[in-house]
Amino acid sequence: MADKETSWRYAEEFVVEPEAISTARQHSLELGIEAISPAMGAQLALLAAASTSHSILEIGTGAGVSGLWLFRGAPLAVLTSIDIEFEHQQAARTAFAEADVPANRIRLITGTALDVLPRMNDGAYDLIFIDADAESLLDYVEHGLRIARRGGIVVVAHALWRGRVADPAARDETVADYRALLATISESSAVIASLSAAGDGLLQLVKLSD
């Protein structure tokens, strides 16, 4: 176990964040937002680049850390990001501007994701990143797979929830929500799924058909 912990820490520290992302991370801390880890961000950037994403949807804007990582992998993409907190989105807008992301590549929607997602078109996005409340995870993923194109990617942050999902003794509601999602995905033939230990878990899904 110690070797795995050492390897995980080494992988996290391997990533060197650009200054703009480090600044956004500091703003996240000041706002009380738990931003994705550097290793998780690097994985997002890799997925965005490898999938040649042009249209990205993010559920959970935060202060812009994950959005900046997505733009690092797909600098020409258009990012639509949903968050219920206007103040957080204003911080993200500032982070994008300071990183020289063109304003026409950003669409910030302030509102509840479950109110916004049903209005989005099927197959409209190349990559969907979900970093939001655990109790609605199954709904978010269902909508994500609907609005992803065939071959598109849906990514869920914190899928191992601070190491607690793998702990049989952990039985709180958040852990139960993540376990329910993972159990459902493991039985699905509609996706190819991979669970990475980056950060506190990154669930990655590829949509196989419409």
Describe the structure in your own words.
The chain has 210 residues and is of the alpha/beta class. It has one domain: Rossmann fold. It is 43% helix and 21% strand. It contains 8 helices and 7 strands. It is globular.
Features:
about 210 residues, alpha/beta, Rossmann fold, seven-stranded mixed beta sheet, 8 helices, 7 strands
Distance between the termini: 41 Å
Task: Characterize the overall form.
Answer: globular
- Cα-atom Rg, whole angstroms? 16 Å
Secondary-structure arrangement, i.e. CATH architecture? 3-Layer(aba) Sandwich
CATH class placement = Alpha Beta
Number of domain modules: 1
* Mean pLDDT score: 96
**Major sheet strand order:** 3-2-1-4-5-7-6
Query: What is the string of SSEs from the N terminus onward?
Result: HHHEHEHEHEHEHEE
How large is the share of residues in beta strands? 15-25%
Summarize the SSE layout with pairings.
Layout: H1 2-14, H2 19-31, H3 38-50, E1 55-59, H4 65-73, E2 78-83, H5 86-98, E3 106-110, H6 113-116, E4 125-130, H7 137-147, E5 148-157, H8 173-186, E6 191-196, E7 202-207
Parallel strand pairs: 1-2, 1-4, 2-3, 4-5
Antiparallel strand pairs: 5-7, 6-7
In short:
By secondary structure, this protein is of the alpha/beta class. The chain contains eight helices and seven strands. Helices cover 43% and strands 21% of the residues.
